[in-house]
Structures are given as C-alpha cells and as structure tokens.
Amino acid sequence: DRRKTCLLPQISLQLFFIHLECPKCQVELCRPPVGCPAGLVRDHCGCCWECGNAEGQLCDLDASSNFYGRCGEDLECEIQDEDLSAGEVPVPQCVCTNQEVICGTDGKTYENICKLREAKIQQTKRENLTISHKGPCKTAPLISTPPRDIINVEGSDVIFGCEVSSYPMAFVEWRKEGQSIFLPADDSHMAVQARGGPQRFEITGWLQIQKIRKEDEGIYTCFAKNKYGEVSASANLQIIDMGKHDTSLFPFPAALNLD
Q1: Contact at 8 Å (CB) between 135 and 112?
Q2: Which end of the chain has the lower number of beta carbons within 10 A, N or C?
Q3: Between the CA of residue 9 and those of 16, 106, 155, what are the distances in Å?
Q4: Is 93 exposed, middle or buried (0-12, 13-18, 19+ CB in 10 A)?
Q5: How far is CA 75 from CA 67, 94, 114, 120, in A?
C-alpha cells in the first residue's frame, strides 16, 4: 500500500548505513563537533566524537545501526507507544533517564537535567548555568495564557479563561472593573472555577457568565497571587443587542464568542 511504498526508500537507506564497515580509526581526521545541546557521543565506529541526539529526537534502537544516530548524555533510546493514535507505527526516541524537575541557577524551572543542558548549550549567556536545587523554582505567578476579548449576543453564555504558571501554585480570582469585590460574589448568573493544568505547575481559572445582559458589558480582570507575588491580565466583554442592529451583519447570531 501507499505507506509501505513510502517506507521502502527509508528502509533501504537504513540497511545501507547499518552495513557500512568501519575504517581504521584516525583521530587526527575527526572534525570537532560544535554546539551540541545533548552533549557528545562516540560515532558508531567508536572513533570520533559527534553530537548526541537530544530528547525527543529519533534514534537507533540497535547499537549496531547507524541511521538516526545515538542519544546524548543522560538519554536512552526507547519506544514510546503510550500516546500513539490508531494506525501509527511506534518509533524509537531519545528519552531523558532522569525525569525529575529541577530549578536552574537562572531561576527557571526545567523538566529534567537534559532540558537544562540544552538551555546551557543553546544560550551562550548561560555558560555557567547549573542546578540550583531539585524541584521547581519558587516564583511569582506568570500568566501564560491571558483572557481574550469577547463579543457576543445578549442572552448568550460566555467564558473567560486564564492559565497561570507558578510555584507554589497561585490562587486565581476575578474582578470586574469598577467593582471592589471579587466575582461571583452573590451574583447567581456568574460562576468561577479552577483546576490544575494543562501543564505541570499550572492552574487554569474560568469565569462563566450565563445569559449575558447589557449591564455585564465591561472589562474583566484575572488576578493570580501566591506568597512571591501577584499578576493580572484583563479582557473586554462587548454585548450586542440584536434588536437594535442589522442582523445581516451577524450571520451566526447564536454565538460570536471569540475566546
């Protein structure tokens, strides 16, 4: 079939590289590798140093093969088949042997030691980057995805979202401009929810307003706070009264939610 046909050239190339014989090692002919984010490894002949493959890159599961290359420092070649969709063929990828989250001396949190090493190599200003301590860095909140402006028809339901990353986890609250209290207060047509995610050390907060009225129009602000600081981001809600506008301008009167 089509997939098998597409794989034939790749398989042929793999077989070609696998069966290459190693010449006599002449170290003086080796070219020094430069800018290797995953560190150095010996080539398949065990002679010259070359850049190792970084986390997530394809690799040769069989040590005798020489097609994709070898994984770098603190990385192993594994087949990850947990997240495969139906019909997908599992392929070997480089996986960091230590998945413990760490805090770098630059104050940033890294998924693992492999990600920190990549950052150190890729950013020349981070040559002295090392591990500050195990676990995430303790930081003030950062709004990774702020709420978006919404234009919708009166009587519709709308939802503002706000994604925040921090450690310790932040507390998310909402407030409308011109009001001193946090929402929903005693307003029965508003609801506030929050849950962890979508990423590690993130929390997502939502403000839902049901059957919006003209008086709900205005600016809404997401506040995120922990012991290290506070941050906020705002979005505007604009409400359209269909009875006072030309409906031909709005081909989808049920919802114009831009979120």
Answers
A1: no
A2: N
A3: 11, 45, 59
A4: buried
A5: 17, 6, 8, 16
CATH 2.60.40.10 intervals, the chain: 140-249
Write down the architecture of domain 35-81+90-97 according to CATH: Irregular (4.10)
Which one-letter amino acid corresponds to residue 75? L
Element (H, E) at 176: strand 171-176
Q: What are phi and psi of 132, to 5 degrees?
A: -80, -50
Backbone angles phi, psi at 11, to 5 degrees: -65, -40
- DSSP string computed for 182-246: PBSTT-TTEEEEEEE-SSTTEEEEEEEESS--GGG-EEEEEEEEETTEEEEEEEEEEEE-GGGS-
Question: According to CATH, where is 4.10.40.20 located in the chain?
Answer: 35-81+90-97
Q: What is the pLDDT along the chain (259 residues), one digit of tens a residue?
A: 444 444 444 444 444 444 457 889 999 999 999 889 899 999 888 899 999 999 999 999 887 788 899 999 999 999 877 766 666 778 899 999 999 999 999 989 999 999 999 998 877 666 688 999 999 999 999 999 999 999 999 999 999 999 999 999 999 999 999 998 999 989 999 999 999 989 889 999 999 999 999 999 999 999 999 999 999 999 999 999 876 655 554 544 444 444 4
CATH superfamily of 140-249: Immunoglobulins (2.60.40.10)
Q: Quick check: helix, strand or coil at residue 109?
A: strand
